[in-house]
């Protein structure tokens, strides 16, 4: 079953840190990762405001975890932590 990594950016504190994150995260990309949504136009329908969102698809839940836990992505993600406030999660999809 596919799995999805969802990142919701709530607010930006340091755009330069996010730029570094973006560069390093691109280097952590794997063939298993397929972007489905990437900071495109959106309409808030309920809940707290957000600045944007990303949805990445992976073949399996384990593939998503392996990507997130990889040394390459963990090197990148510290810059996201410094640059903005996010909520993220991995969720298993359905067939």
UniProtKB/TrEMBL annotation:
Residues of the DUF1330 domain: 2-94
A Pfam family per the record: DUF1330
UniProt superkingdom: Bacteria
SUPFAM superfamilies (UniProt xref): Dimeric alpha+beta barrel
InterPro entries recorded: Dimeric_a/b-barrel, DUF1330
Gene3D superfamilies the record matches: 3.30.70.100
Signal peptide: none
Full protein name: DUF1330 domain-containing protein
Protein's organism: Stutzerimonas azotifigens
Lineage summary: Bacteria, Pseudomonadati, Pseudomonadota, Gammaproteobacteria, Pseudomonadales
């Amino acid at each position: 079953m596919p799995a999805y990594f969802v990142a919701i950016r709530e607010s930006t504190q340091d755009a330069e840190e996010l730029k570094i994150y973006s560069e390093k995260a691109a280097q952590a990309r794997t063939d298993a990762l397929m972007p489905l949504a990437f900071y495109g136009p959106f309409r808030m329908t309920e809940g707290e405001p957000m600045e944007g969102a990303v949805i990445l698809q992976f073949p399996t839940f384990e593939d998503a975890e392996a990507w997130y836990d990889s040394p390459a992505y963990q090197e990148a993600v510290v810059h996201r932590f410094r640059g903005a406030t996010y909520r993220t999660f991995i969720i298993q999809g359905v067939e």
